[in-house]
Design brief:
The chain is of the alpha+beta class and 382 residues long. The protein contains eleven helices and twelve strands. The protein has a five-stranded antiparallel β-sheet with strand order 4-3-7-6-5. A five-stranded mixed β-sheet has the order 8-9-10-12-11. The protein has a two-stranded antiparallel sheet with strand order 1-2. Strand 3 and strand 4 form a beta hairpin. Helix 5 crosses helix 11 and helix 9 packs antiparallel against helix 11. The longest helix has 59 residues. The protein is elongated.
């Protein structure tokens, strides 16, 4: 093994005497190498964790930063002079006052909270920093420096902002759906009360007029108009039921689906097969949203799929409700699913989001299209 030595001495040029001292410094060199390796490991660990270390010396108000902090701040070591005043220039303008307040109370231990600051890089991007620190004192208890760490939490903050944005969109979707249903209920009530009652009065009056005439041709025309009024009354009843299916409030989602699909099958000649678990408890608001998704799905199937059979399933597994609609038609392309003008699909997905769930559309195993809605049990009562 190599041995490292330190040699010093002197030579007398007159007597030609020489004195040398040889010191074995192998252990010191080894300790220095271990220290360098340890510092290298620490630097790499800080780089991986996006955590830098710093020391603030109160005597001359100077900062010593680790290499990772330079990287996090977007600085080259030569571009920062270690002065607090220079650090202020890197801080977001809205956070400068917070930093200034902290600097003024630097020597107080109660100021050892863990604030967050925003740093502005030269390219204009904002980065979020979380600080942890503590004060070190001399033997007399006087504060001499503050040491701490800075962690780049930009990814976490952006994720939190995205989560808040999604929550706001979720609340907006719920509000929009509620407003939409209130408007439909209002329209349904007006149609039923005004138009429905007016048509009923017309039918009654036609019956009275029929009794007052004896002309067979006039009577035949009255019967024809009465039949037309009766058909119109049925149409009004169907429209009001679709606008606000009160059967959901009275008998529940299963009965509403059964009623609607029978009417749909008669109107379109498309067979509908139901497979629903008995008695899943779903709130009226959530049931109405599921019903609307079914309405839109069946409307699209009737218009575009060329199907002659539809399977509808409703079940619950592991606290999650699954509502599945599958047809045997020509199917739907991926382009059609993600088209910006597919407002029906967009609306269904918004309704699913209002339940805290998700809606998927994909090809069936044997052709056709599958629409799958999943939403958690705990969300459907909110």
């Amino acid at each position: 093994k190599p041995t490292f030595v330190y040699i010093e001495g002197w030579i007398n040029i007159h007597t030609e005497l020489c004195h040398l001292s040889v010191i074995d410094i192998s252990r010191r060199r080894k300790a220095e190498e271990l220290l360098k390796k340890s510092e290298s490991y620490l630097e790499e660990a800080q780089r991986i964790a996006h955590v830098g270390s710093w020391t603030w010396y109160f005597k001359n108000s100077s900062l010593k930063l680790s290499k990772e902090i330079y990287r996090m701040f977007g600085l080259a070591p030569g571009n920062f002079d270690g002065k607090i005043s220079s650090l202020r220039k890197l801080v977001h303008p809205e956070d400068v006052e917070l930093l200034t307040t902290r600097i003024r109370s630097a020597g107080k231990e109660e100021s050892s909270a863990s604030p967050e600051y925003r740093i502005l890089h030269q390219d204009g991007t904002i980065h979020y920093m979380h600080i942890e620190s503590r004060i070190e004192t001399d033997e007399s208890g006087n504060p001499i420096r503050r040491i701490g760490t800075i962690q780049d939490i930009t990814e976490r903050k952006l994720a939190e902002q995205e989560k808040r944005a999604l929550e706001q969109l979720h609340q907006l979707a719920k509000y929009t759906e509620k407003a939409r249903e209130n408007e439909r209920e209002s329209i349904s009530r007006e149609i039923h009360d005004d138009l429905g009652q007016a048509l009923t009065a017309v039918k009654i009056d036609l019956g009275i007029i029929k009794k007052a005439v004896s002309n067979e041709s006039v009577t035949a025309k009255i019967d024809k108009v009465s039949l037309l009024v009766s058909d119109t009354i049925k149409t009004v009843q169907r429209i009001t039921s679709q606008l606000r299916p009160h059967i959901i409030d009275d008998l529940g989602l299963e009965a509403a689906i059964d009623w609607y699909t029978k009417e749909f099958a008669q109107r379109t000649r498309i067979e509908v097969i139901l497979d629903m678990d008995a008695g899943p408890i779903i709130s009226a608001d959530a049931s109405l949203i599921v019903f609307r998704i079914m309405q839109e799905s069946l409307t699209n199937i009737a218009r575009h799929s060329q199907a002659n059979e539809v399977h509808i399933q409703l079940n619950k597994s592991d606290q999650v409700f699954c509502f599945r609609i599958a047809d045997n038609g020509i199917g739907i392309s991926d382009k059609e699913i993600h088209a910006k003008k597919s407002f029906g699909i967009i609306g269904m997905k918004e309704r699913a989001a209002s339940l805290g769930g998700a809606l998927e559309i994909f090809p069936g195993e044997n052709g056709g299209t599958v629409i799958l809605l999943k939403f958690p049990e705990e969300q459907q009562n909110t």
